[in-house]
Every structure is written in structure tokens, then in C-alpha cells.
Amino acid sequence: MTRLIDSILAAAASIDYRRIFAENWGIKLFSLLLTISLWFFVTSKGKMEMSLTAPLELRNIPKGMAVVGDVPGNLEVRVHGQERLLRDITAGKKVAAVLDLSFARTGENILRISPEDIQRPTGVSVTRITPYDVKVRLELVERRTVEVKPRLRGAPAVGYTVMSVIVNPPRITVEGPRSAMDSLFFMHTMPIDISGLTAPITVDPKIEYLGKPVKVLEKGISVRIVIERKGR
User: Which CATH architecture has domain 47-140?
Assistant: First the structure.
């Protein structure tokens, strides 16, 4: 056995390795490049790219602050991955952009959106995001007590009139960003139709916001409209 091992070692020592690598180096280089090309072909087979619209979601808005102004509701995202995974996306699997506002401050914030902010199926990569940064303006939230003013529509039946309108509560607490609260001193109800009425009614109207980014904290607002015959 020892003699056999010595023979193998002697044969290995006699091989001219430099000659092996030096001879036919062009063929060897071609073989290497061909192997690499085949590897790329196999690994990329069945992959594709596609563009899609991803909704933008704002999370972790700092306490006591509110988002004001326009923020894009969607982003254009280009993704790359296996064809079967992208088919899942087109079939309804959600892709969404999530922007974390934990460290945002009052005023204008320019926030960069990275591929890590895009929720997507495992194995799908993001190659492009448009736009890649978003402006988000934050303001401090304030509270204020304002008067409720009922808005009536129509008129009672002929011979009848509105004697009084009673709101309960007459004032409500409203919360919203400072810029919206500066000019807010009262809020109307949605129109209450009194057309053709001949008797008192009590309704629970909704508040008319007119696009103001505010929130009414009270619940159960009611309006009683007293209608009586004229001349009583």
C-alpha cells in the first residue's frame, strides 16, 4: 500500500501544471465564458419586469400632528421577478408603498422612498420608483369649541311657519390642524328639508365639513324644529 501511494505522489509531481493551463487557453476561456452565460440564462429564465401603480400609505403620524396639503395617493413602481410571482400581483396580490412618519417634524418634510418601503411578495425586486421622494407637511393639531348652525331647506306647508330651531348641544368641540382652525368659528349642518311640514320634527343631522380637514368630537347632535300654524 505504501508503495502504491508513493507511486501516485511521484506521478502527480511529474505533471507540468503550467503547461496544462498554458495550452489551448483560448478554448478554456471560451468554455468559461460559455459556462457563465449558461448560468445567467438558467437563473434568469422565466423572469420579467412590469410597471404597476402602488397605493401610498402614511403610517406612524406623530401624536398631536396632522398631515395637511396634497400628498400623492399612488406611486408608479417597476418590479422584477419570476413570471409566476408577477402573475400573482396582477391577480390581486397587494403591492403597496408604506411611508413611516415616526421621525417627521412640523412643517414640510421631504421623505425619500426606498425599495425597502415597498411591500411586495418575496422574490420580487423593485427597480424603479416614481416619484422617489414625497413632500409631506405636518401641522400641530388644535381644539376649539364652535357654534352649530342648522341649515334649513325648503319651507313648511302653506299657512305654517318655523317658530324656533333648537340645537343640542349648541356648541361642539372640533379638532384639526392649526391652519384649518384659524378661520373656523362655526359649522353648519347638512341641509335639513322642511318642505311641506305642518308639525315639529327632531332630526340628527350630519355636520357639513366642506372639505375642511377637521373632526367633530361630539356624538349625537340633534336639531328640533318647531313648526306651527301662523297666527296661533
Answer: Beta Complex (2.170)
